[in-house]
């Protein structure tokens, strides 16, 4: 048997390294004063206080980069081109950058810090992303773990977005949570209702933002949001459409479908495949039934993968991947819009590809 003595040197080294890293971080936080430096963003120059990440510094200047994971280096949405003033790629960035991106000096704005005069470039359209104050006007349960929130925009009083896009919601400090966090939520309402933002949010156990939204946010409270973000929106073509979602992934699909004209629906004949485990995971069934009645070209197909006793279900059964082929007989005619968990999405994309749907006609937003 290996004696515990064998591990002691390795454990000591590991704890020493961890302690050093913590000391360096604390020293940098409390002792390093980078003073005022210049940050150039495209053709604009800002005098800023050094020491924070590019993401945080730009936020101070009211430039809001997409940052769906809230700066945890997992979403890779916050990419910028570093022009001058930043060091080598950090270990936290490396897994999220391709070789080509590294060679083009693409960096994660949530990881690199503004320590001296430096310059980045970002897509011009990001300058038009705004910060909104909104008031929660209503909230209702759609299922036991999904809520539908309706916010009235106060300032600015209107948002200009494409159906399918998302906002970033700021969850303020509460209880044991001492910091604000930002999380992405797709807008579920019609894009022409410009003074309202609707969200469908699933409670993630122990999740910082969703626990705030479910347990602390009340009707009448004011919140802060930024947006609109994202390139998940309806393409202007004549192709047949298949939409696939699970859980709160229904949100952007609802926004896209409800904003289509009768003519477009007749032409494109969308089918919406919605995957759920049991009957209690289904919601808005009467809304989709009314939509089907109004638009004979449209079909809503829920499928249950794990019925519960008493579910009394006569619709499709099995995983949503098992159902796709029946409604997409020849993928070459179709364009696909998908939203939900990464696991479900990856599996559906594989099925769609095998059915002949052109990769460039598969659009998705992964919730994770
Ligand atoms: C573009 C985009 C759009 C999105 N739109 C929506 C939407 O419309 N509705 C919606 O409900 N969500 C949506 N999400 C997911 C959302 O942004 C958050 O990730 C989610 O609500 C969890 O946030 P949290 O702060 O509560 O949990 P966190 O505190 O971030 O996470 C707590 C723990 O749960 C894990 N976790 C994080 N997210 C999930 C998840 N989704 N499922 C299971 N475990 C998770 C984490 O790894 C962590 O261990 C979207 C995500 C993206 C990237
Ligand atoms: S904000 Fe998600 S990786 Fe930077």
Strand order, sheet with most strands = 9-8-11-6-7-10
SSE topology string: HEEHEHEEEEEEEHEEHHEHEEHEHE
Radius of gyration over C-alpha positions, nearest whole angstrom: 23 Å
> Looking at this structure, what is the CATH superfamily of the largest domain?
Nucleotide-binding domain of ferredoxin-NADP reductase (FNR) module
Provide the CATH top-level class of the largest domain: Alpha Beta
Low-confidence stretches: none
Q: What amount of the residues lies in strands?
A: 25-35%
> What distance separates the N and C termini?
43 Å
**Beta-strand segment tally:** 17
Biggest sheet record: 6 strands, antiparallel
Q: Give average pLDDT, whole number.
A: 92
| CATH architectural grouping of the largest domain | 3-Layer(aba) Sandwich
Which ligands does the model contain, each kind named once? flavin-adenine dinucleotide, FE2/S2 (inorganic) cluster
- Helix-and-strand structural type: alpha/beta
Kindly report the CATH topology of the largest domain. Rossmann fold
User: How much helix, percentage-wise, in residues?
Assistant: 10-25%
Shape category? globular
The number of domains is 3
Counting DSSP H or I runs of 4 or more residues, the number of helices is 9
Care to give the gist of this entry?
This protein is α/β, with parallel strands linked by helices and 368 residues long.
